[in-house]
């Protein structure tokens, strides 16, 4: 269906978040990873929260891939998650090593790259190697987007990955080289053209979130002022990578993840208020949001 834009239906959501078969196990719902962190921006709690979000969103196993220099900082915050430390360089940032990257991504169906990653000198090498060699759903966010904006975007047309970019307006400006004010004049068309040009899925964050693959475009109008707080974008990426453990990556699945994040945020605001809520409150409300989606009546 090719229209100007679409809105995800209640029936779509109920099917995406349907009840699971009794005869299933963790492998059924996929191994996924989160790659990020550096000694400057350890973000141990942030990465732990993201991994918890991914599990709340339904993946079977989450693997946190970090430089060895911050391993001791993050492990106290983890219970169900697994950690894969990668050798760091002299600046204590993640070092490119083909063998280690191969092992870190082994069995993964999806990975989110960039949270607290910083500006390590090997970040471009790591990202390019993953894009050129791995058949995996790859969400690029935060410092991953900053890294990508310094690279030749043409590689996105030839990647083996299914790439999902999740920028806010400033990050999208860096990627597209289009000024924010120009983007604001026609965000849907500019987002659609960018996704089509580079053959990726684009989620452009905003009060109305735009999700497009260049052909089909969804608008998601969920969320609340209380989500305007540090870490909300990480929660969204955590939800998306968790869902991609057991769903094939397409524009509707990414739109559903955005919808779930917004609804969970709204429920958190009801409890904690728009002033006092924080990103981890949204994580707490993911189960309630899924319950609510399952009970929705078709309109």
User: How many strands, which pairing sense, and closed or not: the largest β-sheet?
Assistant: 9 strands, mixed
Give me the CATH architecture, please. 3-Layer(aba) Sandwich
Gyration radius from CA atoms, angstroms: 18 Å
Order of helices and strands: HEHEHEHEHEHEHHHEEEHHHH
User: Mind telling me the CATH superfamily name?
Assistant: Ribokinase
SS summary, helix count: 13
Unreliable parts: none
**Can you give the mean pLDDT?**
94
- Using the coordinates shown, work out and report the CATH topology: UDP-N-acetylmuramoyl-L-alanine:D-glutamate ligase
Oligomerization: single chain
Portion in strands: 5-15%
CATH class group: Alpha Beta
Q: Biggest sheet: strands side by side, in what order?
A: 3-2-1-4-5-6-7-8-9
Shape: globular
Q: What count of structural domains?
A: 1
Descriptive account of the structure:
- This protein has 299 residues and is of the alpha/beta class.
- It has one domain (10-295): Ribokinase (UDP-N-acetylmuramoyl-L-alanine:D-glutamate ligase).
- Helices cover 43% and strands 14% of the residues.
- It has a 9-stranded mixed beta sheet, sandwiched between helices.
- Helix 3 links the parallel strand 2 (61-67) and strand 3.
- It starts with 9 loop residues before the first helix and ends with a helix.
């Amino acid at each position: 269906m090719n229209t100007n834009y679409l809105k995800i239906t209640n029936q779509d959501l109920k099917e995406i978040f349907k009840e699971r078969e009794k005869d299933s196990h963790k492998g059924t719902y996929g191994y996924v990873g989160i790659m990020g962190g550096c000694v400057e921006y350890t973000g141990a709690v942030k990465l732990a929260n993201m991994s918890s979000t991914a599990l709340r969103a339904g993946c079977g196993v989450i693997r946190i891939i970090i430089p060895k220099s911050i391993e001791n900082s993050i492990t106290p915050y983890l219970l169900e998650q697994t950690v894969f430390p990668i050798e760091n360089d002299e600046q204590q940032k993640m070092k490119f090593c083909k063998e280690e990257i191969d092992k870190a991504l082994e069995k993964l169906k999806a990975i989110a790259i960039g949270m607290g990653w910083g500006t390590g000198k090997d970040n471009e090498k790591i990202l390019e190697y993953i894009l050129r060699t791995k058949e995996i759903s790859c969400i690029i966010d935060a410092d991953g987007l900053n890294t990508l904006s310094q690279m030749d975007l043409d590689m996105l047309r030839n990647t083996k990955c299914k790439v999902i970019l999740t920028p806010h307006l400033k990050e999208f400006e860096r990627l597209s080289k289009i000024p924010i004010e120009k983007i604001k004049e026609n965000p849907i068309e500019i987002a659609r053209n960018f996704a089509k040009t580079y053959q990726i899925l684009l989620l452009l964050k905003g009060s109305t979130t735009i999700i497009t693959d260049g052909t089909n475009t969804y608008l998601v109008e969920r969320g609340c002022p209380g989500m305007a707080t540090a870490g909300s974008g990480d929660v969204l990426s955590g939800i998306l990578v968790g869902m991609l453990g057991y769903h094939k990556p397409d524009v509707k699945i990414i739109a559903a993840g955005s919808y779930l994040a917004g609804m969970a945020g709204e429920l958190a605001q009801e409890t904690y208020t728009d002033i006092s809520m924080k990103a981890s409150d949204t994580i707490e409300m993911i189960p309630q949001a899924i319950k609510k989606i399952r009970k929705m009546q078709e309109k």
